[in-house]
Amino acid sequence: MQLRTAGIHHITSFVTDPQRNVDFYAGILGLRMVKKTINFDAPDVYHLYFGNEAGAPGTIVTFFPQPGARRGAVGSGQLGITVFAVPTGSLPFWEARLNRLGVHVEKVSRFGEELLRFADYDGLRIELAERAEGAVSSWQWEDITADQAIKGFGGGVLFSARPERTLHTVEHVLGLERIAEEDGYVRFRATGDIGNIIDVNSRELPRGIGGAGTVHHIAWRATDFEQHEQWRTQVANAGFQPTPVIDRQYFNAVYFREDGGILFEIATDPPGFANDESAEALGGKLMLPAWYEPQRDLIESNLLPIEVRSLS
Questions:
Q1: Residues whose CB falls within 8 Å of the CB of residue 223, separated by 6 or more in sequence, listed in order
Q2: How far is it, in rounded angstroms, from Cα 118 to Cα 61?
Q3: Which of 250, 247, 246 lies closest to 283 in space, CA to CA?
Q4: How confident is the model at residue 70 (pLDDT cuts 50, 70, 90)?
Q5: Residue 290 pLDDT more than 80?
Q6: pLDDT tens string 107-156
Protein backbone atom coordinates (compact mmCIF):
# COMPACT_ATOMS: atom_id res chain seq x y z
CA MET A 1 0.00 0.00 0.00
CA GLN A 2 1.31 3.46 -0.90
CA LEU A 3 2.33 5.66 1.99
CA ARG A 4 0.73 9.10 2.25
CA THR A 5 2.40 11.89 4.19
CA ALA A 6 0.39 13.94 6.68
CA GLY A 7 2.02 17.07 5.26
CA ILE A 8 4.95 19.36 5.96
CA HIS A 9 7.26 18.48 8.84
CA HIS A 10 9.56 21.52 8.61
CA ILE A 11 10.99 24.06 6.19
CA THR A 12 14.65 25.13 6.27
CA SER A 13 16.08 28.32 4.75
CA PHE A 14 19.27 30.35 4.42
CA VAL A 15 19.38 33.82 6.00
CA THR A 16 22.04 36.31 7.08
CA ASP A 17 21.96 38.01 10.47
CA PRO A 18 20.98 35.65 13.32
CA GLN A 19 19.58 38.34 15.63
CA ARG A 20 17.38 39.79 12.89
CA ASN A 21 16.21 36.25 12.16
CA VAL A 22 15.19 35.84 15.81
CA ASP A 23 13.62 39.30 15.82
CA PHE A 24 11.42 38.47 12.84
CA TYR A 25 10.19 34.98 13.63
CA ALA A 26 10.02 35.27 17.43
CA GLY A 27 9.68 39.02 17.94
CA ILE A 28 7.27 39.84 15.11
CA LEU A 29 5.54 36.56 14.21
CA GLY A 30 5.45 35.39 17.83
CA LEU A 31 6.80 31.88 17.24
CA ARG A 32 8.71 30.17 20.01
CA MET A 33 12.41 29.59 19.47
CA VAL A 34 12.35 25.89 20.31
CA LYS A 35 15.95 25.00 19.60
CA LYS A 36 19.23 26.88 19.42
CA THR A 37 21.88 24.62 17.96
CA ILE A 38 24.40 24.55 15.11
CA ASN A 39 24.61 23.31 11.56
CA PHE A 40 26.08 19.87 12.24
CA ASP A 41 28.01 20.11 8.94
CA ALA A 42 29.28 23.67 9.63
CA PRO A 43 29.54 24.25 13.40
CA ASP A 44 30.38 27.95 13.02
CA VAL A 45 26.79 28.52 11.79
CA TYR A 46 23.69 28.47 13.97
CA HIS A 47 20.75 26.20 13.22
CA LEU A 48 17.71 27.94 14.72
CA TYR A 49 14.29 26.32 15.02
CA PHE A 50 10.97 28.11 15.61
CA GLY A 51 7.48 26.66 16.04
CA ASN A 52 4.58 26.32 18.43
CA GLU A 53 5.03 25.76 22.16
CA ALA A 54 6.44 22.25 21.63
CA GLY A 55 7.92 22.61 18.16
CA ALA A 56 5.43 20.04 16.89
CA PRO A 57 5.83 18.62 13.38
CA GLY A 58 3.97 20.87 10.96
CA THR A 59 4.94 24.03 12.86
CA ILE A 60 8.73 24.06 12.55
CA VAL A 61 10.56 26.64 10.47
CA THR A 62 14.36 26.45 10.65
CA PHE A 63 17.26 28.63 9.53
CA PHE A 64 20.98 28.66 8.84
CA PRO A 65 21.91 32.30 9.55
CA GLN A 66 25.32 33.35 8.24
CA PRO A 67 26.37 37.03 8.22
CA GLY A 68 27.78 38.04 4.85
CA ALA A 69 26.33 35.01 3.09
CA ARG A 70 25.82 35.21 -0.66
CA ARG A 71 22.35 36.33 -1.63
CA GLY A 72 20.20 33.83 -3.47
CA ALA A 73 17.38 34.33 -5.93
CA VAL A 74 13.91 32.82 -5.56
CA GLY A 75 12.92 30.75 -8.57
CA SER A 76 12.29 27.29 -9.92
CA GLY A 77 13.75 24.37 -8.01
CA GLN A 78 12.66 25.80 -4.67
CA LEU A 79 9.79 26.18 -2.27
CA GLY A 80 8.90 29.71 -3.35
CA ILE A 81 6.37 30.74 -0.69
CA THR A 82 5.90 29.53 2.89
CA VAL A 83 2.30 29.72 4.09
CA PHE A 84 1.50 29.93 7.80
CA ALA A 85 -1.97 29.12 9.16
CA VAL A 86 -3.65 31.55 11.55
CA PRO A 87 -7.09 31.25 13.21
CA THR A 88 -10.21 32.28 11.35
CA GLY A 89 -10.87 36.00 11.66
CA SER A 90 -7.30 36.96 12.64
CA LEU A 91 -5.96 38.46 9.39
CA PRO A 92 -6.96 42.05 10.37
CA PHE A 93 -4.94 41.67 13.59
CA TRP A 94 -1.92 40.47 11.62
CA GLU A 95 -2.21 43.18 9.00
CA ALA A 96 -2.23 45.82 11.75
CA ARG A 97 0.64 44.21 13.69
CA LEU A 98 2.88 43.79 10.66
CA ASN A 99 2.24 47.35 9.49
CA ARG A 100 2.96 48.69 12.97
CA LEU A 101 6.28 46.85 13.07
CA GLY A 102 7.37 48.10 9.65
CA VAL A 103 6.63 45.02 7.55
CA HIS A 104 5.05 45.80 4.17
CA VAL A 105 1.94 43.69 3.59
CA GLU A 106 -0.16 43.10 0.50
CA LYS A 107 -3.44 41.24 0.11
CA VAL A 108 -3.57 38.49 -2.51
CA SER A 109 -5.91 35.60 -3.22
CA ARG A 110 -5.48 32.05 -4.48
CA PHE A 111 -8.21 29.45 -4.89
CA GLY A 112 -10.71 31.94 -3.49
CA GLU A 113 -8.74 32.36 -0.27
CA GLU A 114 -7.58 35.77 0.96
CA LEU A 115 -3.94 35.83 2.03
CA LEU A 116 -1.57 38.36 3.55
CA ARG A 117 1.76 38.34 1.71
CA PHE A 118 5.01 39.84 2.96
CA ALA A 119 8.73 39.07 3.19
CA ASP A 120 11.13 38.61 6.08
CA TYR A 121 14.31 40.66 6.48
CA ASP A 122 16.16 38.45 3.97
CA GLY A 123 13.42 38.41 1.36
CA LEU A 124 11.88 35.01 2.09
CA ARG A 125 8.32 35.08 0.82
CA ILE A 126 5.62 34.41 3.42
CA GLU A 127 1.83 34.30 3.38
CA LEU A 128 -0.69 34.06 6.20
CA ALA A 129 -3.90 32.13 5.56
CA GLU A 130 -6.90 31.78 7.85
CA ARG A 131 -7.56 28.10 8.48
CA ALA A 132 -10.13 26.49 10.77
CA GLU A 133 -8.13 23.23 10.79
CA GLY A 134 -5.32 22.62 13.25
CA ALA A 135 -4.91 23.10 16.98
CA VAL A 136 -4.44 26.62 18.28
CA SER A 137 -1.04 27.55 19.67
CA SER A 138 -0.73 28.04 23.41
CA TRP A 139 2.54 29.97 23.11
CA GLN A 140 1.98 33.54 24.29
CA TRP A 141 3.98 36.52 23.03
CA GLU A 142 3.13 40.16 23.64
CA ASP A 143 -0.46 40.88 22.54
CA ILE A 144 -0.76 37.77 20.35
CA THR A 145 -3.47 35.58 21.87
CA ALA A 146 -4.44 32.00 21.07
CA ASP A 147 -7.17 33.46 18.83
CA GLN A 148 -4.49 35.06 16.66
CA ALA A 149 -1.27 33.08 17.09
CA ILE A 150 0.23 31.19 14.18
CA LYS A 151 -0.86 27.56 14.39
CA GLY A 152 1.89 26.22 12.16
CA PHE A 153 2.16 25.77 8.43
CA GLY A 154 -0.80 26.27 6.19
CA GLY A 155 1.32 24.82 3.42
CA GLY A 156 3.52 26.23 0.70
CA VAL A 157 3.95 26.95 -3.00
CA LEU A 158 6.42 24.84 -4.98
CA PHE A 159 8.33 26.48 -7.86
CA SER A 160 9.41 23.69 -10.18
CA ALA A 161 11.72 23.56 -13.20
CA ARG A 162 9.66 20.61 -14.49
CA PRO A 163 6.15 21.13 -13.14
CA GLU A 164 4.62 17.99 -14.63
CA ARG A 165 7.24 15.84 -12.95
CA THR A 166 6.82 17.64 -9.64
CA LEU A 167 3.05 17.25 -9.86
CA HIS A 168 3.51 13.52 -10.40
CA THR A 169 5.86 13.21 -7.41
CA VAL A 170 3.60 15.16 -5.06
CA GLU A 171 0.61 13.02 -6.01
CA HIS A 172 2.07 9.58 -6.65
CA VAL A 173 5.14 9.47 -4.39
CA LEU A 174 4.14 11.67 -1.44
CA GLY A 175 0.49 10.64 -1.73
CA LEU A 176 -1.20 14.05 -1.67
CA GLU A 177 -4.65 14.39 -3.22
CA ARG A 178 -5.08 16.73 -6.20
CA ILE A 179 -8.12 18.86 -5.35
CA ALA A 180 -8.15 21.97 -7.59
CA GLU A 181 -6.51 23.85 -10.44
CA GLU A 182 -6.72 27.52 -11.45
CA ASP A 183 -4.62 30.37 -12.83
CA GLY A 184 -1.49 28.27 -13.30
CA TYR A 185 -1.61 26.62 -9.87
CA VAL A 186 -2.47 23.04 -8.94
CA ARG A 187 -3.60 22.47 -5.35
CA PHE A 188 -3.02 19.32 -3.32
CA ARG A 189 -4.14 18.25 0.15
CA ALA A 190 -2.23 15.97 2.53
CA THR A 191 -3.88 13.80 5.18
CA GLY A 192 -3.03 15.98 8.20
CA ASP A 193 -4.77 19.07 9.57
CA ILE A 194 -1.71 21.36 9.51
CA GLY A 195 0.90 21.93 6.79
CA ASN A 196 -1.46 20.12 4.47
CA ILE A 197 -2.22 22.44 1.52
CA ILE A 198 0.43 22.45 -1.22
CA ASP A 199 0.18 24.51 -4.39
CA VAL A 200 2.43 23.84 -7.36
CA ASN A 201 3.10 26.74 -9.73
CA SER A 202 2.81 25.03 -13.10
CA ARG A 203 4.21 27.96 -15.13
CA GLU A 204 7.76 28.42 -16.34
CA LEU A 205 9.86 30.44 -13.89
CA PRO A 206 13.47 31.64 -13.90
CA ARG A 207 15.85 29.22 -12.27
CA GLY A 208 16.39 29.86 -8.57
CA ILE A 209 19.84 30.41 -7.11
CA GLY A 210 20.56 29.07 -3.63
CA GLY A 211 21.70 31.51 -0.97
CA ALA A 212 20.43 33.84 1.71
CA GLY A 213 16.74 34.58 1.25
CA THR A 214 15.88 31.20 -0.26
CA VAL A 215 14.52 27.90 1.05
CA HIS A 216 17.05 25.08 1.22
CA HIS A 217 14.55 22.23 1.55
CA ILE A 218 11.05 21.22 2.52
CA ALA A 219 10.59 18.18 4.77
CA TRP A 220 7.56 15.87 4.77
CA ARG A 221 6.28 13.90 7.74
CA ALA A 222 6.86 10.23 8.52
CA THR A 223 4.88 8.91 11.49
CA ASP A 224 7.69 6.91 13.13
CA PHE A 225 11.06 5.29 12.50
CA GLU A 226 9.57 2.12 10.99
CA GLN A 227 7.47 4.08 8.53
CA HIS A 228 10.51 6.23 7.75
CA GLU A 229 12.35 3.17 6.44
CA GLN A 230 9.29 2.36 4.34
CA TRP A 231 9.33 5.91 2.96
CA ARG A 232 12.94 5.50 1.91
CA THR A 233 12.01 2.34 0.02
CA GLN A 234 9.02 4.03 -1.61
CA VAL A 235 11.17 6.96 -2.76
CA ALA A 236 13.83 4.61 -4.16
CA ASN A 237 11.20 2.50 -5.95
CA ALA A 238 9.95 5.69 -7.61
CA GLY A 239 13.36 6.09 -9.26
CA PHE A 240 14.96 8.63 -6.94
CA GLN A 241 18.23 8.24 -5.06
CA PRO A 242 17.48 8.88 -1.38
CA THR A 243 20.30 9.40 1.08
CA PRO A 244 20.89 6.96 3.92
CA VAL A 245 18.92 7.68 7.07
CA ILE A 246 20.60 10.53 8.97
CA ASP A 247 20.13 11.14 12.69
CA ARG A 248 19.38 14.85 13.19
CA GLN A 249 18.94 14.49 16.97
CA TYR A 250 15.31 15.69 16.93
CA PHE A 251 14.18 13.60 13.94
CA ASN A 252 15.65 11.17 11.45
CA ALA A 253 16.04 12.43 7.89
CA VAL A 254 16.24 11.10 4.35
CA TYR A 255 16.83 13.53 1.46
CA PHE A 256 16.22 13.35 -2.28
CA ARG A 257 15.95 15.88 -5.09
CA GLU A 258 12.79 15.57 -7.13
CA ASP A 259 12.80 16.05 -10.90
CA GLY A 260 11.80 19.72 -10.72
CA GLY A 261 14.97 20.50 -8.77
CA ILE A 262 13.42 20.92 -5.29
CA LEU A 263 15.24 19.26 -2.41
CA PHE A 264 12.77 17.11 -0.47
CA GLU A 265 13.31 15.50 2.91
CA ILE A 266 11.31 12.86 4.73
CA ALA A 267 11.55 13.47 8.50
CA THR A 268 10.23 11.46 11.44
CA ASP A 269 7.79 12.97 13.93
CA PRO A 270 9.76 11.55 16.90
CA PRO A 271 11.76 12.07 19.05
CA GLY A 272 11.08 15.84 19.07
CA PHE A 273 12.79 18.83 20.64
CA ALA A 274 12.51 17.75 24.27
CA ASN A 275 15.04 15.04 23.35
CA ASP A 276 17.93 16.93 24.97
CA GLU A 277 16.32 19.63 27.14
CA SER A 278 13.06 19.95 29.01
CA ALA A 279 9.91 21.19 27.28
CA GLU A 280 9.89 24.22 29.60
CA ALA A 281 13.46 25.18 28.71
CA LEU A 282 13.31 24.79 24.92
CA GLY A 283 15.46 27.29 23.07
CA GLY A 284 17.06 28.69 26.20
CA LYS A 285 20.66 27.61 25.63
CA LEU A 286 22.92 26.40 22.87
CA MET A 287 22.44 22.65 22.48
CA LEU A 288 25.22 20.60 20.89
CA PRO A 289 25.34 16.96 19.85
CA ALA A 290 27.66 14.87 22.01
CA TRP A 291 30.48 14.81 19.46
CA TYR A 292 30.72 18.62 19.52
CA GLU A 293 30.58 19.09 23.31
CA PRO A 294 34.39 18.99 23.72
CA GLN A 295 34.53 22.02 21.36
CA ARG A 296 31.74 24.00 23.08
CA ASP A 297 33.91 26.96 24.14
CA LEU A 298 35.36 27.37 20.65
CA ILE A 299 31.97 26.98 18.97
CA GLU A 300 30.29 29.50 21.26
CA SER A 301 33.10 32.01 20.71
CA ASN A 302 32.49 31.87 16.95
CA LEU A 303 28.74 32.53 17.19
CA LEU A 304 27.14 35.95 17.55
CA PRO A 305 25.02 36.38 20.70
CA ILE A 306 21.26 36.28 20.13
CA GLU A 307 18.18 36.84 22.28
CA VAL A 308 14.42 36.80 21.96
CA ARG A 309 13.33 40.39 22.52
CA SER A 310 10.29 42.62 22.14
CA LEU A 311 10.22 44.93 19.13
CA SER A 312 7.12 46.87 20.16
A1: 6, 268, 269
A2: 16
A3: 250
A4: very high
A5: yes
A6: 999 999 999 999 999 999 999 999 999 999 999 999 999 999 999 999 99
Does the pLDDT of residue 204 top 90, yes or no?
A: no
The answer to whether the CB of 12 falls within 8 A of the CB of 217 is yes
Degrees to nearest 5, angle at CA 267 with 241 and 153: 120
Q: Where are the domains of the chain?
A: 8-301
Class (C level, CATH) for 8-301: alpha beta
Cis, peptide link before residue 270, omega less than 30° from 0: no
Beta bridge partners of 251: 271
Q: CA–CA separation, 239 vs 253, rounded Å?
A: 18
Q: What is the mean pLDDT of the chain?
A: 97
Flag whether pLDDT at 1 surpasses 80. no
Total residues found in the chain within this entry: 312
Q: Give the span between the Cα atoms of 285 and 235, in whole angstroms.
A: 36
pLDDT band with cut points at 50, 70 and 90 for residue 250: very high
Asked whether the predicted pLDDT for residue 226 surpasses 80, the reply is yes
